[in-house]
UniProtKB/TrEMBL annotation:
<feature type="transmembrane region" description="Helical">
    <location>
        <begin position="78"/>
        <end position="100"/>
    </location>
</feature>
<dbReference type="InterPro" id="IPR036890">
    <property type="entry name" value="HATPase_C_sf"/>
</dbReference>
<dbReference type="InterPro" id="IPR036097">
    <property type="entry name" value="HisK_dim/P_sf"/>
</dbReference>
<keyword id="KW-0067">ATP-binding</keyword>
<dbReference type="GO" id="GO:0016301">
    <property type="term" value="F:kinase activity"/>
</dbReference>
<keyword id="KW-0472">Membrane</keyword>
<dbReference type="InterPro" id="IPR003594">
    <property type="entry name" value="HATPase_dom"/>
</dbReference>
<keyword id="KW-0732">Signal</keyword>
<keyword id="KW-0812">Transmembrane</keyword>
<dbReference type="Pfam" id="PF00512">
    <property type="entry name" value="HisKA"/>
</dbReference>
<keyword id="KW-1133">Transmembrane helix</keyword>
<feature type="signal peptide">
    <location>
        <begin position="1"/>
        <end position="24"/>
    </location>
</feature>
<protein>
    <recommendedName>
        <fullName>histidine kinase</fullName>
        <ecNumber>2.7.13.3</ecNumber>
    </recommendedName>
</protein>
<keyword id="KW-0547">Nucleotide-binding</keyword>
<keyword id="KW-0418">Kinase</keyword>
<feature type="domain" description="Histidine kinase">
    <location>
        <begin position="131"/>
        <end position="347"/>
    </location>
</feature>
<dbReference type="InterPro" id="IPR005467">
    <property type="entry name" value="His_kinase_dom"/>
</dbReference>
Amino acid sequence: MPASPSRRTLALLGLGLVMAAIFAADTLTDYAVAAACFYAAVILAASRILGPRGLVLLAAACVALTGVSFFLTRFGTYRIGLVNSAIGMLVIVITTYLSLKMEAAKAAVQEAQARLLRVARASTVGELTTSIAHEVNQPLAAIASSAEASQRWLAQDPPNVDKARQTLARILADAHRASDVIARIRGLTRGACPERRGFDLNQAVLEMLALSRSELEQHAVIVTTQFDDELPLVLGDRVQVQQVIGNLILNAVDAMDGIPAAARRLTLRSLRVDGGRVALSVRDHGSGLPLEAPERVFDAFWTTKAGGLGLGLSLSRSILEANGGQIRAEPAEGGGAHFVFELPIDDGVAHG
Ligand SMILES: Nc1ncnc2c1ncn2[C@@H]1O[C@H](COP(=O)(O)OP(=O)(O)O)[C@@H](O)[C@H]1O
Ligand SMILES: [Mg+2]
């Protein structure tokens, strides 16, 4: 975790003091006391604040101090001192090597996670492509036909200016609609690094429903929203949370594909829950969760779909946990699946 500059300086100062204390103990005690081994603790603590170069330099300093202590110590058996100093140095070197390895592994994991999130982002947009194309095409087609109409109104003799003006107003409204859709897609693909800030969850849900509209219409899904109008802002990365909402909507559409059209109902409800949190409940009337182990749906690569990746829900869980939230799945009363996720509310305190 990157510490702020002042905390980092303070931590480094603390480590310096500990090193001085170890040096004093190593110098003033008998050769038989292998105090130098405690430098390993300094290395371990420093590995969280220093880069690889800094850590190697620190390790070199620790090895040098061990050597100096050995020459300054006046008590005990020289041979035991020699062996203990060598062991101390070895411990320092091994600890440094392992710390460097561990930090590199951590960086690799973070990199892989970031890459997965980018894939998730692309795949949500990909899965919505048909719906999105339709959402942009519709106003464009309307604009074309309104333009033709206004040409006709103006070609009349005398020209019907009033009608032409009305048609132009429609063109303007449709142009705004198209650019709104584009703005939403931009929002959905923007921002490589997560950004946690307060946002309106109801609004975020409405936008995802708008982007999935033609997908929902095509599958004859009836959507009901029950929004708490006094919902406080939630804290999280808006774009990432919208990925989760998109995943849940698309999964619900898939799950209800096999049931009669009249029963394809999807309900999204926002509410305040205990502990200063906000929840979104997504309930469908589809095929339902695997009875024996509902939690399996969150396993990576677990899918029952021919073209499925089985990553949507696993990524959704990672996203929510990274945003201080959680998600669970349970069978819905009367059939279907019920997904609930929670996020902390934005209490106005600055978050780093
Ligand atoms: N709303 C739902 N109703 C029933 N089953 C679901 C629902 N959502 C997810 N599942 C099950 O969980 C599996 C994993 O979902 P997900 O992680 O989104 O991957 P994918 O959609 O690619 O299969 C799905 O294949 C499906 O079997
Ligand atoms: Mg899915």
